[in-house]
Amino acid sequence: MARRVNADEPPINALKPERLHSPQARALGIELVSLEPQVVLKIPYREDLVGNPETGVIAGGVVTTLLDTTCGWATAVALKQLTSIATLDLRIDYMRPSAPGKPIYATADCYKLTHSIAFLRALAYDVDPSDPVAAAQATFMLDSNAGRREGANLGPPARPAKGDA
Questions:
Q1: Long-range contacts of 93-99 (CB under 8 A, 24+ apart)
Q2: N or C terminus of the chain: which is more exposed, having fewer CB within 10 Å?
Q3: HEC string of the chain?
Q4: The predicted structure's pLDDT at residue 5
Q5: In this predicted model, what pLDDT tens digit does every residue of 29-45 receive, in sequence order?
């Protein structure tokens, strides 16, 4: 966990942006646009992200990853102290196809924090934020590692003790 340098600075600023991106988000090229006054992330248009070459529209799964990642960032920004987080639920309403050749932006707002859950709303848009491509409602679990070190769940499986077969 990163240490805060300035008590008035949000804890998210103590981390490097690439630290908060999943490998999938990095592979898709998701970029941080701003943290204030609202979290905004962007995915540049790339032909390899297109779902249907005839329409040139970015695939829905890419939009899902963008919204999920943006909600994660909004959760991290809302926290007083950084902790591990994990998506519990992500509901997305797709309203229209994105404009071919245009990047897609996403904004998210963490409107409620409890001791264990963050509640968020997010929008994805291309040209005009008032005409969204998709809207999302999400919940994130806080302290998802339950105090274990990061990546502890990625080690080899525990071997059963002798006689536990």
A1: 93/134, 93/135, 93/136, 94/60, 94/63, 94/133, 94/134, 95/132, 95/133, 95/134, 95/135, 96/131, 96/133, 97/55, 97/57, 97/133, 98/57, 98/58, 98/63, 98/124, 98/126, 98/133, 99/126, 99/127
A2: C
A3: CCCCCCCCCCHHHHCCHHHHCCHHHHHHCCEEEECCCCEEEEECCCHHHEEECCCCEECHHHHHHHHHHHHHHHHHHHCCCCCCEEEEEEEEEECCCCCCCCCEEEEEEEEEECCCEEEEEEEEECCCCCCCCEEEEEEEEECCCCCCCCCHHHCCCCCCCCCCC
A4: 33
A5: 999 998 888 899 999 99
Assess contact for 76 and 12: CB atoms under 8 A: yes
CATH code for the part of the protein at 22-146 = 3.10.129.10
What's the whole-model pTM score?
0.79
